[in-house]
Write a structure and sequence with these properties.
401 residues; Aspartate Aminotransferase, domain 1; 7-stranded mixed β-sheet; 37% helix; binds pyridoxal-5'-phosphate
């Protein structure tokens, strides 16, 4: 395969070689069921224990507080449903406008079923205002769910303070830390966070494995019911290879946190500053807020994100755009819309997300290849002469209102 310049680590990340190696025995000789009474299956319990300790260490939690799930989405769903079952008398939840669909779609569904949902707004840099949270909390609030860091912009939210406010009103607090885990130091001991979701494939474990942190003593009702696995908190025979892989990935991530915040952050800054100085009419979405060290979301005025991505893809460069061409109409992402990114910019948003596997040579490759892409697209853009962006859909076909 030709060289891949992979700058899409918030979408998914490569499985670390050490993680793949850790998983190997479970495809072969170690196939037992950890719940079995016999030595062969029961012997596998120790690998679950080890993984649980490693994940707990990454989060500053204790092993009993870690529940393995099938993905970040399952952890998020579990947290939301659990809070409502734990407080059947309460009919209100609070979240933000910029959550991942794994939280937002559940919130929307609950709303359709008669629950009251408050969606906290964000300002122009993508940050929430804790005053809004304070104002929204009532004795009827079962749960506050606020992501630790946003997947599109990398903006970091004040979750520890938000958790204290939620607790003061008797509400549970959940955070979707799928993008934060492994990138930011997290120490849950001493916080009021009740539940935290993480996902393996964002931190160099495989896709299809996740974890939910559940604070000791927090009210909880399981999502998956059945066997007694995970102390009755998540039924289903444990995915031993993936859990072992997640454990190893958590151990590696804990050891790499400093590198994320020095090496990876330096590469991100080099890329961001390089693009800003090489291309006119750009803006960094969330640039004014505190952000994940690996993420930059840059808007290029008068161009379509999809066109940029396709041209980059031809050069082996992988990134994401802040919009999706669905059913023939291009809307900027809900995150950029919530930040009120101007229309002429919002359509041309590209997210680069790095990892410890990226190099300065790769960044320099992008800095060479990228500016001509924008130049070319602007030269053929029907908008660059100042015409408004309306009247054309995402896919370049004119559309009628
Ligand atoms: N939450 C956030 C913030 C994410 O970025 C993602 C993945 O894109 C998820 C949840 C869902 O995780 P998973 O793909 O493991 O279900």
């Amino acid at each position: 395969m030709e060289k891949v310049y992979y700058f899409d680590n918030n979408a998914t990340s490569r499985v670390a070689p050490e993680v793949a190696k850790e998983m190997e025995p479970f495809w072969g000789e170690l196939y037992g069921n950890p719940s079995s009474m016999h030595f062969f299956g029961g012997g596998n319990q120790k690998y679950l224990d080890l993984a649980r300790e490693r994940v707990a260490r990454l989060l500053g939690a204790s092993p009993e507080e870690i529940i393995f799930t099938s993905c970040g989405t399952e952890s998020d769903s579990t947290a939301l449903w659990s809070a409502l079952r734990a407080f059947p008398e309460k009919k209100h939840i609070i979240t933000t406008k910029v959550e991942h669909p794994a939280v937002l779609s559940v919130a929307k569904y609950l709303e359709s079923q008669g629950l009251r949902v408050t969606y906290l707004p964000v300002d122009a840099v993508g940050q929430i205002d804790l005053g809004d949270l304070k104002a929204a909390l009532t004795a009827d609030t079962a749960l506050v769910s606020i992501m630790w860091a946003n997947n599109e912009t990398g903006v970091i939210f004040p979750v520890e303070e938000a958790a204290r406010l939620a607790h003061a009103k008797g509400a549970l607090f959940h955070t979707d830390a799928v993008q934060a885990a492994g990138k930011l130091p997290i120490n849950l001991a001493g916080t009021k966070i009740d539940m935290l979701s993480l996902s393996g494939h964002k931190l160099h474990a495989p896709k299809g494995i996740g974890a939910l942190y559940l604070r000791k003593g927090a009210r909880f009702a399981p999502f998956m019911m059945g066997g007694h696995q995970e102390r009755g908190r998540r039924a289903g025979t444990e995915n031993v290879p993936y859990i072992a892989g997640l454990g190893k990935a958590a151990e590696l991530a804990a050891a790499n946190i400093e590198k994320e915040n020095t090496y990876v952050k330096d590469l991100r800054d080099r890329l961001e500053n390089g693009l800003l100085s090489a291309v006119k009419n750009t803006r960094v979405n969330g640039g004014g807020a505190s952000r994940l060290p690996n993420t930059t979301n840059i808007s290029f005025e008068y161009v379509e994100g999809e066109s940029i991505l396709l041209m980059l893809s031809e050069k082996g460069i992988c990134a994401s755009s802040g919009s999706a061409c669905t059913s023939g109409s291009l809307e900027p992402s809900h995150v950029l819309m919530s930040m009120a990114v101007p229309q002429t910019y919002a359509h041309g948003s590209i997210r680069f997300s790095l990892s410890v596997y990226n190099t300065a040579q790769e960044v320099d490759h992008i800095l060479r290849e990228f500016p001509p892409v924008i130049e070319k697209l602007r030269a053929i853009s029907p908008f660059a002469d100042g015409k408004p962006l309306f009247g054309m859909d995402s896919c370049g076909t004119p559309h009628h209102h």
